[in-house]
Amino acid sequence: MRLLLGEFIGTYIMLSLGLVTSVIINYFLFPKGQNRFITGFYWGISILIPSLLTTFFFGTAEYNPVVSLTLAVNHQIHWWLMIGEVITQILGAWLASLTVKAVWSKWLASLPLNLNFYATVPRDVNNWKRNFKWEIIGTFLIIVNTEMQNDINAQWWIKTLFSSLLMMIIISIVAPITGAAFNPTRDLVPRFFFSRTYDKRLSQWRYAVVPFLGPIIGAILGIIFSVIFSHFVYKS
Fold first, then answer.
1. How far is CA 225 from the centre of its chain?
2. pTM summary value
3. Could you give the percent of the chain with pLDDT greater than 90?
4. Nearest Cα to 138, choosing from 229, 231, 221, 42?
5. CA distance linking residue 151 with residue 168, whole number of Å
6. pLDDT digits 0-9 by tens, 184-217
7. E strand or H helix at 136, and its extent?
8. In angstroms, what CA-CA distances link 95 with 56, 69, 199?
9. Angle at 215 between CA 193 and CA 211, to 5 degrees
């Protein structure tokens, strides 16, 4: 129960910080387009802060269902715990979406409605092949990092800093292309909230298959690569 509470709090803080910061930056600081490195930086910070907090207080920092799936496949957590983590991640993402609405709703009447403040929006929504590829690559790197962390003898906060820095770099590269989900919960829950709260026609549900299946496939490939890599390393 303690781990699930940490998952919920961490997911809420991560998405609230990331999405609200996105709103503020897009509306007030860079209304004509923000730099990709700014996007990577504030999402990296949004991941780092809750990761440090929940790892310290709850011993967990998994806010991504594909990471939870990876841990379950590797027998690091029980399958029932994985299901509980996914549920709490969904609830945290929904509450974060409510927070975003509360922060910028008073400007909604005078500003254009933008799905990008909730879900991921690619540069070219019709280029599914390219977007799908990058979602797979980004998630693959995240999962490989997660797997390799178990073999690294370092303090937990060093591992957390490294993982957040890696996320910052990946997001900086991929965000201008796909919006950089790498996390089905991060995209689908805010997208569903946007669809139910504002306008279903603007929700781009046809594209949602990319940030849903891309991370899942990337996670599977990451697990396979890590197993093969570990086999050859330990064999040698």
1. 21
2. 0.89
3. 40
4. 221
5. 22
6. 999 999 999 999 988 888 899 999 999 999 999 9
7. helix 128-149
8. 22, 22, 19
9. 40
